[in-house]
Description:
Number of strands: 11
Radius of gyration: 19 Å
Low-confidence stretches: 1-37
Strand order of the largest sheet: 3-2-1-10-9-8
CATH architecture: 3-Layer(aba) Sandwich
Order of helices and strands: HHEEEEHHHHHHEEEHHEEEEH
Amino acid sequence: MSIEKYTPSILLILVSFMLISCGGGSGGSSTSANTPTGSTPTTVQAVLDDAVSKGIDGIFVYVEQASNLDKSFAAGIQDKALKQSADANSLFKVASISKLFIAVSAAKLIDQSYISLNDTLSTWLPELASRIANAEIITIKQMIQHRSGIADFDSQAGFDWHNAHTDIDSTLLFALDKPADFIPDSKYEYSNTNYLLLAKILDKALGYSHQVFISENILVPLGMHDTYLMLSDIDPLLLAKGYWENLDRSMQDYVIPGGSMISTVKDIAIFIRALNTGSLLTASEKSIYRSVYWFNHSGWLPGYQSVANYHSDIDAVVIQFVNTTGGNSESIASTSYQQILDVLRR
């Protein structure tokens, strides 16, 4: 099980399915009746209500469609103990959507000549060169693209998603001294280790934390006031609970770069719009970025699954968060996303 649980095959499905919400109260819980079994939901809110009726705890959606729709939706519950209804303004662990922020930062720093796409892993992290196979030929470009062959730490014996992961170097140990999964650049295979290492490289190139760079160059310029780099940065009372195996996993911390960020559906919509059609990237930065990474992403952490997409055919950004993982919740979430798109395309 990985942070990016939907990659690559499910991510491609989700990219084509891109969620979109339309119907129900902005930022609040649904008051409409659940869609009857066997019927096809005809509004965004009905889609969300139907998803809850099928077993997920809560679902949070934001749809931003230029000159047509700019609205949040929610259904279900976000805190079972308090019987608190799902609120689309709540904070949420966005998991691997965080990787987009690291990839954008890398593109900006490449454009500014801090680093190069062809720089090798051993050049920037020589202390790890003897512990990562092919470190002398693995490039920054290959790490961004998940074409490095570096072992994914969460696929290794001993790594357990039931535990918190609060030390970056201890987590990295799971991927060290392992054989390469494949020859660098010979194939694609998603590995969370790539982005942990990229964060270390960005820190070294900058001389300070890449998280500060993300804040100053992405969050502040875009006005993303409800987006945070770490769980420790937030008031936990503002975080939607996340349920895995029917247990609240919201305080199970995860600090690993590429999976640690927390945000709202609206803030992530702002980011995805700016990344795809806005001014987040200059022309030269966008050329670099387009050559190496996606403009959409999904994410998974215990209790939290998310997807963030821009759909050019309807000029719409659709963000969907679900605070349930396991069982058939991933299937329900995927279906609801497609149904939202169907509603928007009618």
